[in-house]
Amino acid sequence: MRYRRLGDTQLEVSEVGFGTWTLASDWWGTVDDEQGLLHAALGAGINFIDTAPVYGDGGVGETLLADVLASERDEIVLTTKCGYDIAAERPGGQRERPQDWSPRGVREQLEGSLRRLGTDYIDLYQLHNARLDALESDDLWAELETFRSEGKILEIGVALGPAIGWVEDGLYALRERPVATLQTVFNVLEQEPGLTFAAEPVVADGGCSMISRVPHASDTLSGKVTPDTRFPKGDHRAHRNRDNMLDNFEKAETLSFLWAPETGRTIGQAAIAGILANPAFATVLPTVIDAGEVKEFAAAPDFPLSADEKAELDGLWSRNFDHEDRFEMPMKVSR
Question: Which entry of 55, 84, 125, 172 is annotated as an active-site residue?
């Protein structure tokens, strides 16, 4: 495993991180051994663990980390998030719960997270799927700075989502707020708006780091599914437009040189190595449901892209992988 610094902070994180989203829900398949996956991640050198109180029900995305944190807190760079009222009901299916960005509400969320995690501080506290209303709230940001002065959080980040886009929101965070990280959907097939964010001076100069999620483009770059795969209704991948999935599978065929036998990489490792070839990204959060995937993806930094491979990848991206899309992915906006 290799490690990178988060922005200009003192936090060094593994180039491949571990998210608890799949441990806390069945939206990407069933995890049979949650603690086994956590220990597989730590054993592979992963030290960056990403969670949120809204993962699963009743804050289980955090409580499942308590035992590991009790014994290995000093070895883990922990990030959790704020913004959602986890006591509120979802308005249906996998839709977002209501958000509460009031200073009082966010303080209650932080105290709840600390209790569930069994720790007295959070290394990186991310605003979860924050829109412009939260990013523009001076009262909220004053309260976040108070948390920092109290030692309850060390650094602040923003996680954009839940879908691709939120360009205005991300640019506002980078330009106007003291963020150490910006998390966004980014993979070698879907590089915007990540590249736009990476070009901002605060990122290009190393003051803020990017975090990639959905690095395998909903598994079109993992080798785990095929164009014929049909996901059940409750599976998060079923939300993807069918034509978009087919576009991505066909584009991926142009990248097979990245996982040719002589490279030593699997397709899943190549997808991660392609992201890490951009120095703006400090870490990648793959979606995993078994220990084999953890070990496979954690080894991706062992096979970095060569300069020639990176140049060829960039050229293909600039030409849309020599592909005519059936579907144009819309960029989500706040207003």
Answer: 55
What would the pLDDT profile of 196-255 be if each residue is shown by its tens digit? Answer: 999 999 999 999 999 999 999 999 999 999 999 888 887 878 888 999 999 999 999 999
Q: How many domains does the chain have?
A: 1
Q: How do residues 144-170 score in pLDDT, each as one tens digit?
A: 999 999 999 999 999 999 999 999 999
121 is catalytic: no
Q: Which residues pair with 197 in a beta bridge?
A: none
Task: Give CA angle at 122 (173, 277), nearest 5°.
Answer: 55
| 304 cis-preceded (ω within 30 degrees of 0) | no
In a domain, 334, yes or no: no
The DSSP output letter for 159 is E
Does residue 335 belong to any structural domain of this protein? no
Distance CA(6)–CA(179), nearest Å, equals 10
Residue 134 lies in a domain: yes
What's the pTM? 0.95
Strands, sheet with 77-82, edge to edge from the N-terminal-most edge strand: 18-19, 48-50, 77-82, 122-128, 153-159, 181-185, 209-213, 281-285
Cα 219 to Cα 9, 70, 73, 154, 286, distances in angstroms: 32, 33, 31, 33, 10
Cα distances (angstroms) measured from residue 201 to each of 67, 135, 196, 328: 40, 19, 11, 29
CATH code of the domain covering residue 223:
3.20.20.100
The half-sphere exposure of 240 on its side-chain side, counting CA atoms within 13 A, is 22
181-185 vs 122-128, strand pairing mode: unpaired
The range of the structural domain enclosing residue 302 comes to 3-322
